[in-house]
Amino acid sequence: MQKFTKHILAAISVIALTHHLPLAAADSDVTELGRQLFFDNNLSFNRSQSCATCHNPAAGFVDDRDNGVGAAVSLGDDGLSLGSRSAPPAAYAALAPTFHYDTKTKQYIGGQFWDGRAKDLQEQAGGPPLNPLEMRMPNIESIKKRIQENSSYIKSFKHLYGNTVFDSSDKFYSAMTDAIATFERSRFFSPFDSKYDRYLKGEYELSAQEELGMALFFSNNNTNCSTCHALHPEGHPRETFTNYQFHNIGVPVNNFLREANIANRNIIDRGLLDNPAVDSVEHDGKFKVPTLRNVAITAPYMHNGVFKDLKTVMEFYDKYNNPQRVNNPETGKPWNEPEVETTINRQDLTARKLSDQKIDAIIAFLNTLTDKRYEYLLQTKE
């Protein structure tokens, strides 16, 4: 009973922090305005959704609603429309570089969304309110009118962005998205206070299993995990556990989602190739490498939410090297075919096969990447 009460109190503290309490005095007025906008349902057509609906701060900034598809993708403001990709975690998203092509690595890097189509956080913030499958506002002018219904908003916008901020739709929308992006750049989204962060500071001692998992994770002679899921050398205090590149790892089609999502049932998801700035077929089927921070509490996994369990993800990676991993443990059947076969990055997927013991150790290490305020969710899951 005492453990259960502890979990409830932890959950209440997260909800209170995100919905009711003001930001610390050190945070700017722009950040506070962004916080209010982030939680405002009035920015959707039916006044039923906010940014926080699909990026719930109490759940690691992902959409934890079932939505009739096992939380694989988000449900729109109309209560009917489903997306075809999961909502990426908003946590640590501010650290992604601006979308660009790196001539040294010959890779596209950064941006927001799974295909990087929003060059930065501010551009991303402007997408969902106008998306017909998401918040469904018909145009910027209609959003401006919603904002002007609130006298406090009018006062804040004029104080922060000038008295002429409402004179044009473009000027207003730039201000609104700037405020939301500023809030998303705050420490609230990127606290760097997980057990791993505390370990680096000498404030937490890894268990033997966690230490083995860390050694395996950072050992390219064994797993290749850090080839894509590390930006800095091991031990960097602000590691986001992604290099922000785009790769095709052969993620299986989510047939359950396809059956439920009538509008997109027969559409092949081209990933990076759907980005308007990319036109080469060599990038077909590639998706941005996601951060592994909070990965243990942000299931389901992959861009289409096809895997429910982190262990399944690990066995999927291992199937490229271990002939015994022939079946998806969640279905008991062979792995589904990938949408795009030709561009699978088999070079980086090649590694030593993993035993169940090593997989469990890596998962134990991944658990240590959970922000402190969500650690109770790990205990609840156990």
Structure summarized in a few sentences:
It contains 15 helices and 6 strands. It has helices at 2-19, 29-38, 51-54, 121-125, 140-148, 151-161, 169-184, 195-200, 208-218, 225-228, 255-260, 310-318, 346-349, 356-367, 375-381, and strands at residues 100-102, 107-109, 246-247, 287-288, 327-328, 333-334.
Describe this structure in words.
With 382 residues, the protein is mainly alpha-helical. The chain has two domains: 2-89 and 120-184, Cytochrome c-like domain (Cytochrome Bc1 Complex, Chain D, domain 2, Orthogonal Bundle), CATH 1.10.760; 195-381, Cytochrome c-like domain (Cytochrome Bc1 Complex, Chain D, domain 2, Orthogonal Bundle), CATH 1.10.760. The chain is built from 15 helices and six strands. It has helices spanning 2-19, 29-38, 51-54, 121-125, 140-148, 151-161, 169-184, 195-200, 208-218, 225-228, 255-260, 310-318, 346-349, 356-367, 375-381; strands at residues 100-102, 107-109, 246-247, 287-288, 327-328, 333-334. The strands form three sheets. A two-stranded antiparallel ribbon has the order 1-2. A hairpin with a 4-residue loop joins strand 5 (327-328) and strand 6 (333-334).
